[in-house]
Design goal:
Layout lengths: L5 H24 L3 H12 L6 H24 L3 H21 L3 H24 L6
Helix pairs in contact: 1-3, 1-5, 2-3, 3-4, 4-5
C-alpha cells in the first residue's frame, strides 16, 4: 500500500468517518422505519409543509443515508456522493427551518461545512486515496 501524505490521509479518514456516520443513521432507522416516518409526520404537523410532501421524503431519508454511507466507505463516486449529500442536507435544513428547529439547522449547517471541506480537499487528493 502506498504511504499517504498527511493531507491525503486526513481526507481518507474524514471520508470514512462520514461514511460510518451516514451508514449508521440509515441502519438504525431501518428496523422501525414506520416509527421514524411517524416521528417526521409529527414534527411537521402544524407547519407549512403538507404531509403529502413529508411522508415520501421521510421514507426516502434512511435509504439515502444508507446508500451515501456505503458509497463513502467504498470510495466510489465520491464527488457525486458528496453532491447528493449536500442536496440531502439542504433538504433537511429547509425542513428544519419550516419546523423552526434552529438547533438542528445549526447542526445540519455544520455538516454542510464539513462536506464543503471534504469536497474541496477530495479534488486535490482523489487519485492518491483510491482504494
Amino acid at each position: 500500500m502506498k504511504k499517504l501524505d498527511n493531507k491525503a490521509l486526513a481526507v481518507l479518514l474524514f471520508r470514512i468517518s462520514f461514511g460510518i456516520n451516514f451508514l449508521f443513521h440509515g441502519i438504525v432507522r431501518m428496523p422501525d422505519l414506520e416509527k421514524f416516518v411517524t416521528g417526521m409526520q409529527n414534527t411537521f404537523q402544524g407547519t407549512l409543509l403538507p404531509e403529502f410532501m413529508v411522508t415520501p421524503l421521510a421514507y426516502c431519508i434512511p435509504f439515502a443515508e444508507l446508500i451515501i454511507g456505503i458509497l463513502f466507505l467504498l470510495n466510489k463516486f465520491t464527488r457525486e456522493t458528496l453532491i447528493a449529500t449536500f442536496l440531502l442536507m439542504n433538504i433537511l435544513v429547509i425542513g428544519s427551518s419550516f419546523a423552526q428547529k434552529w438547533d438542528l439547522v445549526g447542526l445540519q449547517s455544520t455538516y454542510i461545512g464539513f462536506l464543503f471541506l471534504l469536497l474541496y480537499f477530495t479534488n486535490d487528493h482523489q487519485k492518491s486515496i483510491q482504494n
